[in-house]
Amino acid sequence: LSNVVILDATDEGALREAGVDRYDVGLVSIGNDLESNVIAAMNMRLIGVETIWAKAESRTHHRILSKIGADRVILPGLEMGRHAAQMLNNPAVQDYVALGNGFSVVNLLIPERLKGRKLSDLNTGPGITPLGLMRGTEYIELRDNDPAMQTNDRLLLLGKRVDLTRFGDQL
After folding, report:
1. What is the tens place of the pLDDT at every residue in 37-65?
2. Per-residue DSSP letters for the chain?
3. Could you give the strand order of the β-sheet that contains 93-100, starting from the edge strand earlier in sequence?
4. CA distances from 157 to 80, 124, 138 (A)
5. Model pTM greater than 0.85?
6. pLDDT value at residue 110
7. What is the largest CA-CA distance in the chain?
8. What percent of the chain has pLDDT over 70?
9. For residues 106 and 98, what is the distance between their CA atoms, to the nearest angstrom?
10. Strand order in 25-28's β-sheet?
11. Which of 40, 55, 96, 124 is a plausible cystine mate for 9, CB 3.0–4.6 Å?
């Protein structure tokens, strides 16, 4: 970040005085004061901040921020809970990133029983694209390469959640 300010964002004058109207992005991370959070987001929109990200505490708060023009609203509690539930649902899933439109990239731990088998031996099925293999801190590209899997390797896959879940259940 080239420039960051901390100020009372409920004060439109303070935002203007600090030159926030010239910023590309404004981030509202006020979490425990709904009124201040909403006013800060609204003030940033009023002074012309191009892109506004804001933290919400509930779905209703999310709707309010969306209606006043926040470009991205984050519900950290809900998002983290959903993330943890997905990983707890399948112990092979080390982590994942939702890309939108139902697509995700998952990081799956290769089980001991697949040690020594070639990646091509895995039947990922349609709709899943293997992206690479992580071996410790080394990334192994799969293009023109069919490595034998080792214990604790992590396979990176791209696909729709339903297909990735099906494949993860087979592991």
Report:
1. 999 999 999 999 999 999 999 999 999 99
2. --------TT-HHHHHHTTGGG-SEEEE---S-HHHHHHHHHHHHHHT-SEEEEE-SSHHHHHHHHHTT-SEEE-HHHHHHHHHHHHHH-TTEEEEEEEETTEEEEEEEPPGGGTT-BGGGS---TTEEEEEEEETTEEEE-TT--PBP-TT-EEEEEEEHHHHHHHHHH-
3. 93-100, 103-109, 154-160, 128-135, 138-141
4. 21, 9, 16
5. no
6. 85
7. 65
8. 99
9. 9
10. 25-28, 51-55, 72-74
11. 40
β pairing state of 72-74 and 51-55: parallel
Taking the C-alpha atoms of residue 62 and residue 70, their distance in angstroms, rounded to an integer, is: 9
Among 94, 86, 91, 103, which residue's Cα sits nearest to residue 156? 94
**Single-letter code of the amino acid located at 57:** E
